[in-house]
Specification:
heterodimer, A: mainly alpha, 3-stranded antiparallel β-sheet, 9 helices, 63% helix, B: mainly alpha, elongated
Chain lengths: 213, 20
């Protein structure tokens, strides 16, 4: 890009929008593999994806987050994203500070891959999301995953790491709700300006909403 | 809202993709 673009306060926006768009596709692919998800109506699948997408992106990005440099690495160690980079995509510290705190806390739980994946499934299948029709079906699917997670921790996660682990994981879901809320607030502000919303991808606009249309 | 809930074309496409 031309030099002056790098100095604009939104220089990272197109790049981050691409990354998020790619991640949304991964979230959809993941959701489709959750037992029972595809049996929900298309409307309920869409409602769940729209409301949980940013939470799953935050959850899955923990795998690339490093406590050493407090940064996310992307496609190898030479590409790293720090808070500073995300502020250049229009997000403020009101989102990014708690987000990094969340990443640190989650990293310290030292989850097994199985636990991490189950947590993402439980997050997607939240029965209290707005716009859901069949809340009780979603709840029963979520209950099933919660039971699997608790059984897994009991049988496969040795002490001392397993101590209150399930409760700590559920607390992370609560943290994600407030991160989601703050993200929505900041996204609304950002997408309200056509010069910024035009830098987003069609998928991002569809999932997070398009204030202009 | 009305437009949004009716459409979601990309989401629908990505959900149906690869289904047999």
């Amino acid at each position: 890009p031309p030099m002056d673009i790098n100095f604009s306060p939104f220089s990272m926006l197109p790049h981050l929008a691409d990354l998020v768009s790619y991640s949304i596709q991964k979230v959809i692919g993941f959701a489709k593999m959750i037992p029972g998800f595809r049996d929900l109506t298309a409307e309920d699948q869409i409602a769940l994806l729209k409301s949980s997408a940013i939470e799953i992106i935050m959850l899955r990005s923990n795998q690339s987050f490093s406590l050493e440099d407090m940064a996310w690495s992307c496609g190898g160690n030479e590409f790293k994203y720090q808070i500073n980079d995300v502020t250049k995509a229009g997000h403020s510290l009101e989102l990014l500070e708690p987000l990094v705190k969340f990443q640190i806390g989650l990293k310290k739980l030292d989850l097994h891959e199985e636990e991490h994946v189950l947590l993402m499934g439980i997050c997607i299948l939240s029965p209290d999301r707005p716009g859901l029709q069949d809340n009780s079906l979603v709840e029963s699917l979520q209950d099933r995953l919660s039971e699997v997670l608790q059984t897994y921790i009991l049988c496969k996660h040795p002490p001392p790491g397993n101590r209150l682990l399930y409760a700590k994981m559920i607390q992370k879901l609560a943290d994600l709700r407030s991160l989601n809320e703050e993200h929505s607030k900041q996204y609304r502000c950002l997408s309200f300006k056509p010069e910024h919303s035009m830098q987003l991808t069609p998928l991002v606009l569809e999932v997070f909403g398009n204030e202009i249309s | 809202k009305k437009k949004e809930s009716k459409d979601h074309q990309l989401l629908r496409y990505l959900l149906d993709k690869d289904e047999k």
